[in-house]
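Researcher: Next sequence.
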Amino acid sequence: MARPLVATSPAAGRLAWSRDELLAEHPYARPHEAAGRRLHGGFDAQGAYVPPRTLHRWPAIRAWQDALAARDFPLIEATTRLLSAGSYPTGEQQKLLLQHGLGETLWNALTITGVIEARGRLLIDLPAPDFQKIVLEDLSGTATGHLVKGLLTAHGMDEGGDPHTGLGAHDEMWFAIRDLVFGAGAYPFPEVPATIARPEGGRLAPEVPLGHEQMLSLLMNVLMIEIRAENGFAFTQRLLADPELFADRRDAARLGHELVERIRTDEAVHVAYLQLVLSELRSFTIVAKDGRHVPGREIIDPMWATLVQWHAVENPRLARAQLRDVLHARIRAHADGERLVAAFEALG
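Model: Next structure:
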């Protein structure tokens, strides 16, 4: 039988929410339309952008955060402070490319981001395992207990769209940003990586059933991808705000900058609930396959450290090595290629 959690203060708010509540929208004063696309979310009466499906999702997450804090358990670190590698190309390198008509690198990056966002729709109907089967405490009033009660579905709709409304989500928003500053079809469609998650490399938590370990790995990979995306948002916005770039499309670049900010606003709720679920799980008692009661942190912390190392150190190093030769070849195709390669490397 699940062990009840310690009661929280009244300020913690409601801890049990229905799927319909977690998917509920605000009563928007104006729909979200940009770059000829009908998009998710909307605007309030004061003209401020409001993310989709957050009428109750944010209050629920804050209530679960308060409940965790009331039990004296901290949230895990889930900010860009975890990242040790900067963007490649750097902002100055990317600016050099753009100023010499070499926009394909940024075009590819925006396109690949949109495609990867679209893949997020798999979360809508993801058959997630029941964590209550391996957690001693009662999960009914936790974010972990609501993963399959709307949290994962809402996340998937934010990334790849709600199939029932036809409104564009983050995938369409990234494609809109790309087309605003380059024009539709400016470059060939790039090759998109099959995955940007950590490759399988043996089990990381053999104490729990494989399905639960795979779900933990997915949540951790997605959280680290969201954290890395925050650097990408800032990087893209700096380029779009640079008055020396996209000189003939400054209005379009400003709108693109605003669309990035709206995506950034949407993604905050994803980081918050994923950080919270992993923090809750490390605070719980895990019932191992052999019946032992294991503190959750003994399972979560080593897994999290492994995924952080991959996304913050190993993957950027590999990606840079793979991309460097491609970039050099692309630059050398320019009439002034050799000089630009030297200038590109000097800026690195």
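Model: The longest helix spans residues 297-332. The two ends are 58 Å apart (CA to CA).
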